[in-house]
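Take just one protein record:
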Amino acid sequence: MKSSKSSKNRKIIVIIVLLLTLAVYILFVLRFSYIMITSTVDGERLDERVEAAYTQASHMPAKRGNILDKNGEPIATSSTSYKMVAILTDEWSQSGRDSNHVEEIKHTAQVLSQYIPLDEDEIHNLLDQGDVKQVEFGLAGSDISYELKTKIEEENLSGIHFEEMPARIYPNGVFASHLVGLAQSDTDEEEDDLEGVLGLEASLQDILSGEDGGIQYEKDFFGYALPNKDAQIVEAEDGMDVYLTLDRSIQMYMESVVTEVNKSNPSAAITATLMDPKTGHILAASQRPTFNATTKENMNETWQNFHVEYTYEPGSTMKALTLAAAIDQGVFNPDEFFESGFYNIEGSIVNDVKPEGWGMIDYIEGIARSSNVAFVKLFEKMGGQTWKAYLDAFQFGQKTGVSLPNENAGSNPYSTTIQQANTAFGQGITVTPMQMMQAFSALANGGKMMQPQLVDKIVDPADGQETHYESKVAGQPVSAETAQQTLDYLTEATYNPNSTTGIFHLDGYELALKTGTSEIVDPETGQYMTGPNENIYSAVGFAPAKDPKYLLYVTVQQPEMSSEASYGAQVVSNIFNPIMKWTLDRSEVSQQLDIENSGEEIMPQMTGLSVEEAHQMSQELGKEVFMIGTGSRVVQQYPIKETDLTNHENIILMANGAMSMPDLKNASKSDVLKVSELTGIQFNINGSGYVESQSIEPGTLLKEDTKVTVNLSQDRQAEEE
């Protein structure tokens, strides 16, 4: 009985084993059949794996196109830079001369501190990490020039290596930074190409980036190219060069003016925009806060481009457009009188800045005094729907289509009568500076409204073929006759004895100008903010008034008052006046320049020269040079090319490589401020006159948090002796 039971158990086990074997065989056949039919294993195609195993490919990156100003001056260019890394593990090293890791930490830290903006202790701590195989040096070890890399390599430091990486150079520092934008290496991508992340660098990515190429050939098991097999070569197509409408000289001057005003009257936001209203070309545009594209200083203050992304209520500068609409409708009579002060419109009160008013005044004086009542009455004369048609014709509530990302269309709530009336003096409607520039251009261009334009042309570096961006008429909201009459009345009001614009008058030039003050809505409460200077102050000017060649619009939000400017319009004028005057003077000088009579030299271009060549050229000009940087090539200069070099003006140059402290002895306060701007380092200035001493030794590497104090003395001659 027992033997029979054991035999039965063995049969069962054999049957189970046979069934399992059959099941495995069937699964194997099904799996093999699937692979044969689909050529796929775990989602990966076998033919592609074989091709990858026996095919070698080499990436050939395209060179990113340059961005240049209207005259061909460089704004953004591409080059090769290096990232420094340190190998800390000995896993890949051989002893002795072939050592591939950092062996002498203290010596390595001491040497590197002479070349990069980190002190010896900081570098020592980075290198002294026993559980880490490799370290980088952050920003201090990135964007290293070839010249600096060569100097470090000559120190023969074991374990210090350099990785080649594409770099984008912005030789002008703070220079329309949010408009031009930024291109950075995408370290998440295998090819590590430059990619635009802001401004024109982002919106023109496809034009600037080009098409990468490569070489592909078949190889054997050992990695050697197979004979009689042709390599497949795809040439890289470099990106196009983009010429902007910006004028580098005007832009550099605008940046210096805005910087100075923002130092004396720190503001929540500033914009300044200069346009040629005949073409729509933006000649210069600046904002604060901004960043230095060379040093990356203040990168995190704001990524918002105020010219197209930030919306606000424009205030009384809108009255220039209301005036144009009223003239166009035939309801404006400059000699007609009205009662100023306040006005009841369907139960809502509209006040002038002086609620008790100025009595019965005519409409020219109403423009001069910027009377809200005057423009509400003009609104009533036109009618709400007629005025709305003009707002639409001026294209408020629509994007301008300028070549910038993230443009905001603004808003125009237009339901109740008081909402409609408020828009006539710039309240309740929200706009962007670029929308205002487009609308104002109609007044300066015979009623034809020009779309703002930043790109002048695209040039193919391979064959020089040019593609021009033609100026575009965005619409014609008013007639040519209306536009001219509007300028005439604005000019008359500008020079009226009661005008609010007297502080903006420029010697030698006649302007048509309108100022503005608008309230700011608190985003938390939805109510207008109260308190002193909780406003946006602005001015728009057309010059020369009879036939404007320049249109300048400035806005300043919530400025802090100071001895330099004690009220909002004065802050605006401190930006507006020098920029408009300098631009007008330059346009005259460029046509009638007589160097022999001026007694002044013209600043040559030094960017792109070697440091030695720049020093020699400066000596020939009889000028002292203050040199920033450790590199061998000049990447920034001040004064800018082709501007007058006065007898008392020195030359400031920035070289590539790490930033280093120049010898500022005998430098003027103006020189010191320019060095501070170029480096992005805050300088504490004591006294007046010329630099007598400085807290940082010349040649010392500068870091973002470096604090520099300079002491000035009036007696420069004594110092020279």
